[in-house]
Amino acid sequence: MSASTYTGNDGFWKPSSTTSARNKTDSNAPVFNFSSAPLAQQRLLLPIHKHKRQILYSVENFGVVVIVGETACGKSTQIPHYLMSNGWCDNGFQIVCTQPRRIAAQTLAARVTKEVGRTLGTTVGYTVRFDNKTSENTKIIYVTDGILLREATLTDPLLSRYSVVMVDEAHERNLNTDALLGLLKKIRRKRQDLRIIVCSATIDAQAFLDFFNAAETTLNIGTIISVDGRQHAVDVLYLDKPTSNYLRSTVETALSICKLSSKNPKGVNGEGDILCFLPSGEDVDEAIRMAQEVVDSQDPTLANHLVFLPLYSKLPFNMQARVFQIDERDKHKTKRRIIFSTNIAETSVTVPRITHVIDSGLVKLPYFDPKTDFERLIVVPSSQASAKQRAGRAGRLQAGQCYRLYTENFFLKLEKATPPEILRTNLSSFILTLKALGVDNILGFDVMDLPGVDSLSHGLESLYALGAIDDDTNLTVLGMDMSSFPTEPRVSRMLLESLREECSVEVAGVCAALQVRSLFLTPRGGSSAGRQQQQLDYESAISEFADSSGDHVTYANVISHQDDRRMDREECSERFLDYVAIRRISEVRDQLLRFLKKFGRIRSLGMATVDEKRKVILKCLTSGFFFNVAKLHNDGKYYTIRGTNHILVSPSSSSIFHTHGSHAEYIIFCETHDGSRGGMELKNVSAIDPRWLRELAPHYWN
DNA sequence: GAGCACTGC
After folding, report:
1. Which of A98, A102, A161, A521 is the most buried (most CB within 10 A)?
2. Where in chain A is the domain with CATH 3.40.50.300?
């Protein structure tokens, strides 16, 4: 098929003048059959193998080595292995490799364990939150970057166990990775023996090297090594004219790819599946409705050969799983799958069998506004790096194609990379971590991108209001205690307050619930009659737990019910409760209580009355979230009361406060979203007594 | 008539 023959609804497809999304690699590159070759042979076939000597030489002679390795070049598995075989684990030293995601740390450790020929957790292991598979003798440890950062904060500021720290996927520029890079730069001033390897998929290598070079003496300058990937070529096609409706264009492009294939003698069997990138879960659902409607009405024959699947993180687990299971009954591939996905498929998960990618060119990103203290999700054009990553998803199986729903000129004007998280986020947590690491002057801490003054001072002001730092921005005892919790500062403050109110078990449960996705299974889908009944059933089930103050005490009620009754999966679903979420909440709560135990006696409210229980839980909540208060005005609506800019806010109709609460004069909330009709929508809302504000946050509310 | 990227400790 020739893609340039397709006429889009709003424009024409034309092949890119720069042809391929892939760098350097040859389109006739051999396809390795990894499933049948013995392990040792597989390792020798990896592109990284050619660079083994160069890598070992560089690590020996340079303090910092930047490796530019494309997807599947073998860097994450092989480099630690090479280093171990060459003495970098002698004298009790260990090699640590950081990953942004848990699943990556776990699977990499498992893969390298197989190569080394031991069981997981002996020579090779991993540590992620709630899961530690290492032993005293472990030489190579895969961890999430957050774990290594906390290890430095809590126990070992110089990371003295490690001879080499390898920071993988550094180009993603997560907050944790950035903090870690800054910390490693600082450690190298004291530990010249430490070796740092930074891995990145983009050509940004020089920026990483420059970052470290600024502090290094001439003795130890870093070096860059580039390793080719094992990807197939992906042809990139652009629109001739911009589209006016990306959703419709996505659906029409996907369907026309299928129509063209069905005229091809190879038919649909010759082609892999189609992956479409859209900015939101809502768009994903809408695209599927649209696509189903088009094929049902226009092309019923094609409809029999297609399956439309959604993929986004809020989707229930079993729905997500459908994307990764190739249906047994369909092993001869009579049906072609069209997967509509958010950014989750860009890096977090790999959808199998994709040969075509359709890229809307859009992404939804959070931006924190220090002036309003709200984080907002905004749809923005994705970056060139992101577009390249999306295109690459088509080239894992065989040569593929990527349709970009914008013009080539538009692509050339896009940002090179997505703005790093450090420039977009609330920095209070980041600053508290640095303070705990002994960084007194935050402005003097070296990061790849320095956040704006507004953003830094907002972070400092919040920490001051929480009592974590003093007038001279020095860490207080309370701040030091707060920094030890794996939670954001407001939640850490709330946990510590629970010791004083003697309700730690309940408050830790509420804090855990705030971090895990919704406890309740809200009804969705189905016919309108059935749906109405479901809604009624849902409301009556919730009523059993609902407290008139709102969401937080209701969570405490559910969790305490679970402690007493140990509801199983079935009973949970009858009561519209998410069993997996509740299990997760207990796990998080128990971890929080273990941290809390260092600072005081853990108590539970036991036989306290409903009123007493409500009061102490909400006071603890107020001690952390006093920034987020709104007052009922004469017009019957809530407005924030901080500063001079009073913003209209309305409790989400899905909140317990909305369904079961009273018209309290003052409310407190933990989360905001842009509302559909202006103003902000609130999640996790409770009624509070305004006197608590002066009592618990005097320097903020006086 | 609800509902809103994705991680991580």
Report:
1. A98
2. 3-16+232-419, 39-227
**CATH architecture designation of domain A39-227:** 3-Layer(aba) Sandwich (3.40)
In chain A, list all ranges with CATH 1.10.10.2130.
422-483
CA to C1' distance (Å), from A559 to B1: 29
Of A247, A215, A98, the residue nearest A165 (C-alpha): A98
What is the distance between the alpha carbons of residues A563 and A581, in angstroms, rounded to a whole number? Answer: 14
Q: Which nucleotide is nearest to A313 (CA to C1')?
A: B6
Say which nucleotide is closest to residue A653, CA to C1' distance.
Answer: B2
Listed by range, residues with Cβ under 7 angstroms from strand B are: A 100-103, 128-129, 144, 146-147, 150, 174, 176, 280-282, 312-314, 342-344, 348-349, 364-366, 377, 429, 486-488, 515, 522, 652-654, 673-676, 681
* Distance, CA of A634 to C1' of B7, in Å: 41
Distance A300 CA to B7 C1' (A): 40
Nearest to A585 by CA among A663, A531, A518, A639: A518
Q: How far is the CA of A251 from the C1' of B8 (A)?
A: 34
State what percent of residues in chain A have pLDDT above 90: 65
Tell me the C-alpha distance between A347 and A201, whole Å: 12
Q: DSSP class of residue A325?
A: P
CATH number of A3-16+232-419: 3.40.50.300
Closest nucleotide (C1' vs CA) to A150 is B9
* pLDDT tens, position by position, A112-126: 999 988 899 999 999
Which residue is nearest to the C1' sugar atom of B6, using CA?
A344
Q: Provide the 10 A C-beta neighbour count for residue A265.
A: 5
Question: Inter-axis angle of helices A428-436 and A145-154, to 10 degrees?
Answer: 40
pLDDT for the residue numbered A527: 58
> Which tops the pLDDT comparison, A691 or A74?
A691
In angstroms, rounded to a whole number, what is the distance separating the alpha carbons of residues A567 and A575?
10
Strand residue runs (E) in A264-353: 273-277, 306-311, 336-341
Angstrom distance, A207 CA to B7 C1': 23
Spanning CA of A175 to C1' of B4, the rounded length in angstroms is: 23
Which of A143-147, A255-259, A600-604 has the least mean pLDDT? A255-259
Q: Quote the pLDDT of residue A559.
A: 94
Q: Calculate the CA A568 to chain-centre distance.
A: 29
The class that CATH gives domain A422-483 is mainly alpha
Residue A156 has pLDDT above 50, yes or no: yes
A383: pLDDT strictly greater than 50: yes
Residues facing A164 on adjacent strands: A95, A195
Q: Report the protein residue whose CA lies nearest the C1' of nucleotide B5.
A: A364
Architecture of domain A621-701: Beta Barrel (2.40)
